[in-house]
Design a protein that fits this description.
Pfam families: AA_synth (PF06684). The chain is α+β, with helices and mostly antiparallel strands. It contains 3 helices and 7 strands.
Length: about 190
Amino acid sequence: MPDVILRKTIASYEEIFHEGGPAPETPQRRAAVLAIIKNPFAGRYEADIQGFMEDLKPLGLQMAQKLLDILGGPENIEGYGKGSLVGEGGELEHGALWHAPGGYAMRQLLGNANAIVPSSKKVGGVGARLDVPITHINASYVRSHFDSMEVGSNDAPRGDELAFALVMSTGPRIHSRSGGLEAWDIKGEDGLR
């Protein structure tokens, strides 16, 4: 498979103190890391692309570790998500190659994550933005942790590039009060509840 050619990474950090209501004791923190790489399949149809997922695994681990460093370690993480922006010379399936390397990297470094890592992807031009969904790391049905974080870059993805994103958060939405399964009621049996 082709080499992973990294042009740049971007890290983004948010600290949310309130959304109009009272400030909580601890602010919610969330961070994203975006990697801009050359799309080795841009401009042509390639039937066999799955092998590139294996090549992306080290990049996924580097990005997940950077998120853990930003947010203070795995013990602080309660939510996660991933996403892909595909430059105009590529196809949506090229973005899908991020599912395993991105998701498994976070789950491996967190050690106790049972829920599937939610994702989004789209084809877009330079400056495109992507909302990356976030759910609880151990139970996808925990409504308080349904969130998203916008990612993007002013100069990416170029037509022959891919922009891969990983996102983590430290807790529920500030002022969450929409009911449903609560984090303290997680059974941890199936990654859903």
